[in-house]
Design a protein that fits this description.
The structure holds two protein chains of two kinds.
Chain A (H helix, E strand, L loop, with lengths): L8 H4 L2 H6 L13 E8 L4 E2 L6 E3 L4 E4 L4 E3 L8 E4 L2 E4 L10 E6 L33 E4 L4 E4 L3 E6 L5 E10 L14 E11 L7
Antiparallel strand pairs in A: 1-13, 2-3, 4-5, 4-6, 6-7, 8-11, 9-10, 11-12, 12-13
Chain B lengths: L1 H16 L12 E5 L10 E4 L3 E4 L5 E3 L9 E5 L6 E4 H6 L2 E3 L10 E2 L7 E2 L7 E5 H6 L5 H5 L5 E5 L3 E5 L7 E5 L2 E2 L18 E8 L3 H4 L6 E7 L6 E10 L3 E12 L2 E12 L15 E14 L4 E22 L2 E25 L2 E20 L5 E23 L2 E16 L6 E14 L5 E12 L3 E13 L4 E12 L3 H5 L1 E4 L4 E4 L4 H10 L3 E4 L12 E15 L2 E24 L4 E25 L2 E14 H8 L4 E3 L5 E3 L14 E11 L4 E10 L2 E2 L15 E2 L2 E11 L4 E8 L16 E9 H4 L2
Parallel strand pairs in B: 1-7, 13-16, 31-35
Antiparallel strand pairs in B: 1-4, 2-3, 2-5, 5-6, 8-9, 10-15, 11-12, 13-14, 15-16, 17-18, 17-45, 18-19, 19-20, 20-21, 21-22, 22-23, 23-24, 24-25, 25-26, 26-27, 27-28, 28-29, 29-33, 30-31, 32-34, 33-34, 34-35, 35-36, 36-39, 37-38, 39-40, 40-43, 41-42, 43-44, 44-45
The chains are: A mainly beta, B mainly beta.
């Protein structure tokens, strides 16, 4: 069901390397690898369409960027959690950790540094670090086609439970990362495909 | 229905008995004024030097005085036809005089442009007229099928079959039936399939904002549908068409004019099985439906001064379709049944105390209602029921005064009352409005022609609105006229935007119309459901009309009696467009939405029309429209570098202006060409039409909610239509044809049913018994 695959993208794509292997930049000592995670399945709660009542409660899938794997429980070491369209971080009302996040805009490969001015948030009663709802956080919901597409140019910046910075881009909400023009209502959904870059040395650059 | 048929049969019999006419015996020289098909032109007259004017009789014959000087010149005039002059000698030698129709229907009288009678060529704004023959040759049963063959008009689906003009959608186009507005829109669309075409005499299409005389909705333009009137004698006809998808259209009408009374009655029955463009998905693309339409017109001329008319129209529709719904995690089928009813009563009283004054008092009452039910097929349990009822009443007085022979002033005042009741609206809602309009038509010189007008509306919902407009035409020479107009248009917020009270139980969001958002928010706040208010609460419910400023300019270039070139260039700047917008965030993460005046849009483009009579009986016409539309706020966001897209290999990049394709559902290029051929020996009329609709954006795919990617476009289509018809002397007309012969369809255009073959029959019953 869950298939986590690490791609060393440097093997396949030179484009990804450009941003990482800038020789003028002394900060990252090594080339940072973009990690691609495919088909992380995080089904939403099942709801009765007539009454709006939740029939069966799904559970969040807790993911750790540093370990590149799922944590078993909410108490484990994780950074970010998925359930349906909701994304939580391991802090505040969502977990016991210290993870924080924010949504920024830009081209993923060119986003080289987290500015000091960027305010990362924890999950609180008054709102999640990654806001929910179409057009607010990471996705757009199309009222006509009822399809979900990740909002292009939206980058999630996450400070992991361990205090390192991650930039992350969600590529698809549908199984096997199909191009959006091949997605239909029958395409299995709640399968996250995303890429991320982790800066393990605690600095704000990628 | 049965009674109606009996009544109709009786009328036909009555007509049979009274249809014996004595034939007059002519001794004086007689001319016959005919059109190119040999049919008499009944409104023609002949003027002979000093002898004055002689009208033709009911057979198109004109008896000339016996003492004519054979060297004199005759002038034959008929409205809508080119004037013909010839020496008496020549006319006597060949007494059948054929008049040619004015090219491009320039001679046609248009009412809707100025609310007074004016011919197309004298109007300083872009107007086209579709005549009965053009309507017939399309083989159309419903109005949308006629309009889709016109330059600059696009038929698009959105909760019914709607129209698009100058890049503006159905919401912004006023549809008039015999000069009175049709009501009953669903999500802004007035469904053109509600209107049967078999008794339409002509359709006037006025482009550019006309709020200066019509008020709200007339922002893009006006379509006025003029139905048949009985003006003399007894007439009666029956008509039937049958086509693909078991679609049947039957009409009959009857008219009698006697002792100053004009009475006309019309009945139409339509049924279709609907069609399906995507059989793999449960449900039809276009529902199966059945309709009855009934119309009567009663008029009485009391004297030269007084005339009274009452028009009545009733429409009833039953539709059914089905779809798949998710019931406790399982896909099950549900039936959808819909009913629509529409009743209009429209009395008019006209008083002409002198030839310079006309007073017209009009009333218009209209009821429109819909009912829709969705039921599970397996057990008949009701899933959803939705009702809508609208009542509209208008009283209006119009005064026309011929100030001098070069100035005509029209003034009017009216009152409007509207109520609406619907499933998702609270209570019965009432709106009141009053308005005044003034218009001045002036020919300052032989070459100049200016129409100035303005209208003021005062509305209980959106306050006041002023709509001025000025149009002018300059005749450069005999062949070329240039016209220009600038005007303002507006559209009042619709019911939904004001009254909606909607709560989606399954996802937990709310949508409030402007009138309800204050109360709705207060309630949610008291319940502790509001997390954060996103908008200054003083702005809640502050909804005003959408407004536009438009500019139109173009020319009519009549190269010869047989060749006409027309063009219009337009630009509409629309501000305060109403859109749904989140106003608060709820504790459940969802939002409260309401309607706000937020967007600004520009539509601009050019239309070009060519009419060419290649030979007698052979005519070619072509039209093209270029259209450019854009949302100014999207352009700002692109310039600010706020919009991104993904390319095919999933790389993110910035959207550039060049990527942006403007508004959805607009074709940048569209056009048509038509070839009409009348084969004299067989008497067969052929009409071949090719209609092109260029590619258009159907929706967002790549997630940034704007049109900016090739995969977001539906491909352009060329559709070929052909019809053949033959009219017999006894008033019988037979036709056969096919629309969309090569079956070009597009999933994103649900108004295009694919190939449709049809046969038709028509008979002027009164002619059969002569």
């Amino acid at each position: 069901m869950k298939k986590l695959i690490i791609w060393n993208l440097a093997l396949f794509s030179t484009v990804f390397i450009f941003s990482c292997s800038d020789s003028d930049d002394p900060q990252p000592e090594e080339n940072l690898e973009a990690v691609l995670v495919e088909n992380l399945h995080a089904p939403a709660d099942v709801m009765d369409r007539e009454t709006g009542e939740i029939i069966s409660q799904g559970s969040y899938k807790y993911y750790s960027f540093e370990d590149n794997e799922l944590a078993e429980t909410r108490e484990g070491n994780w950074d970010i959690g998925f359930k349906g369209l909701s994304i939580i971080v391991n802090s505040g009302i969502s977990g016991n950790g210290k993870a924080e996040a924010a949504v920024v805009q830009g081209v993923f490969e060119q986003y080289n540094a987290v500015p000091e001015s960027l305010e990362l948030k924890i999950d609180t009663e008054s709102g999640l670090a990654i806001p929910t709802g179409s057009g607010n956080g990471w996705y757009n919901y199309n009222m006509t086609t009822h399809l979900v597409s990740p909002q292009p140019g939206n980058i999630l910046v996450v400070k992991t439970n361990g205090g390192n910075y991650v930039k992350m881009e969600i590529l698809s909400y549908y199984k096997d990362n199909p191009p959006m023009n091949e997605v239909s209502l029958t395409t299995p959904s709640a399968y996250y495909t995303f890429q991320y870059v982790l800066q393990p040395n605690g600095s704000r650059t990628f | 229905m049965n009674r109606l048929l009996k009544c109709f049969t009786f009328s036909v019999l009555l007509l049979l008995l009274g249809a014996i006419h004595a034939l007059a015996v002519d001794k004086s020289p007689t001319l016959y004024i005919l059109d190119i098909k040999g049919n008499p032109i009944l409104h023609a007259y002949v003027s002979v030097g000093r002898q004055g004017v002689i009208p033709v009789n009911e057979k198109g014959a004109c008896h000339l005085p016996e003492d004519l000087d054979t060297n004199d010149t005759l002038q034959i005039v008929a409205m809508g036809y080119d004037i013909r002059q010839l020496p008496v000698k020549e006319a006597m030698a060949n007494p059948s005089i054929i008049l040619e129709e004015k090219i491009g229907r320039l001679g046609e009288i248009v009412v809707s442009a100025t609310r007074t009678n004016r011919s197309v060529e004298d109007l300083p704004m872009p107007v086209t007229v579709i005549g009965k023959e053009k309507i017939q040759e399309t083989g159309a049963m419903r109005l949308s099928e006629v309009l889709r063959e016109q330059t600059g008009l696009q038929v698009v689906a959105n909760h019914g079959v709607g129209l698009q003009m100058q890049g503006l959608s159905s919401d912004y186009i006023l549809i008039l039936l015999d000069g009175e507005p049709l009501i009953g829109r669903t999500a802004g669309t007035l469904d053109l399939d509600r209107i049967s075409v078999s008794n339409i005499e002509r359709i006037e299409i006025l482009r550019g904002p006309s709020s200066s005389i019509y008020g709200s909705e007339a922002m893009a333009g006006v379509v006025n549908i003029i139905t048949k009137n009985n003006r003399s004698g007894v007439t009666s006809s029956v008509q039937a068409r049958y086509r693909t998808h078991r679609t049947l259209d039957i009409s009959g009408d009857f008219g009698i004019s006697k002792n100053g009374w004009d009475v006309y009655a019309y009945y139409n029955r339509f049924r279709t099985d609907g069609f399906d463009l995507s059989p793999e998905i449960p449900g039809l693309t276009s529902s199966a439906y059945r309709t009855h339409s009934f119309q009567t017109k009663v008029g009485k001329t009391f004297s030269d001064r007084w005339n009274a008319k009452v028009f009545l129209k009733y429409y009833k529709e039953d539709a059914d379709n089905f779809m798949e719904l998710n019931r406790q995690g399982l896909g099950v089928l549900a039936d959808m049944v819909g009913k629509r009813e529409d009743l209009n009563v429209n009395p008019t009283l006209t008083f002409k105390p002198s030839k310079d004054w006309t007073f017209t008092l009009r009333g218009m009452s209209s009821l429109f209602g819909t009912e829709s039910r969705t039921l599970y097929q397996e057990d008949g349990v009701l899933v959803e029921a939705e009702d809508f009822r609208q009542f509209y009443h208008r009283t209006e007085l119009q005064v026309d005064h011929q100030l001098t022979n070069k100035q005509l002033v029209t003034a009017g005042a009216g009152h409007l009352l509207e109520t609406v009741e619907a499933t998702r609206y609270n209570d019965l809602n009432r709106f009141d409005a009053g308005y005044l309009f003034l218009q001045h038509q002036w020919n300052p010189s032989d070459r100049w022609n200016v129409v100035t007008g303005f209208r003021g509306d005062l509305h209980s919902q959106y306050g006041s609105q002023l709509s001025p407009k000025i149009s002018g035409q300059y005749q450069i020479n005999d062949k070329l006229r240039w016209q220009m107009s600038i005007g303002m248009g507006f559209k009042a917020p619709d019911f939904r935007q004001v009254l909606l009270n909607f709560n989606n139980a399954s996802t937990g969001y709310f949508v409030f119309g402007a009138n309800l958002v204050q109360d709705g928010m207060k309630k949610l706040q008291e319940q502790g459901q509001i997390q954060q208010i996103l908008l200054d609460p003083s702005q809640f419910g502050d909804l005003t009309a959408e407004t536009s400023l438009a500019f139109n300019t173009g020319f009519r270039y009549k190269l010869s009696n047989d060749l006409l070139l027309q063009s219009n260039i337009f630009r509409n700047n629309i501000s305060n467009l109403i859109e749904t917008s989140p106003v608060a965030r709820l504790t459940n993460g969802q939002h409260v939405y309401s309607y706000l005046n937020v967007a600004n849009v520009v539509t601009q483009g050019a239309e070009l029309d060519l009419n060419w009579r290649i030979a007698n009986g052979l005519q070619f016409s072509a039209g093209y429209m270029f259209l450019d539309t854009r949302d100014l706020d999207v352009l700002d966001r692109i310039d600010e570098g706020e919009l991104y897209k993904r390319d095919a290999s999933n790389r993110t990049k910035l959207v550039t202006r060049a990527d942006y394709g403007g508004l959805l559902n607009r074709s940048r290029h569209s056009g048509h060409m038509k070839l009409n051929y009348y084969e004299k020996n067989s008497g067969v009329d052929m009409a071949l039409r090719g209609i092109y609709r260029g590619r258009f954006g159907f929706g967002d795919i790549n997630g940034n909610l704007i049109l900016d990617d090739d995969m977001e476009y539906a491909k352009g289509l060329m559709v070929w239509n052909l019809s053949l018809s033959k009219s017999f002397d006894n008033g019988v007309r037979l036709e056969v044809g096919g629309n969309n012969l090569f079956d070009e369809v597009n999933l994103h255009d649900p108004t295009n049913a694919g190939r449709l073959l049809f046969v038709g029959f028509q008979s002027n019953v009164h002619q059969l018994f002569k």
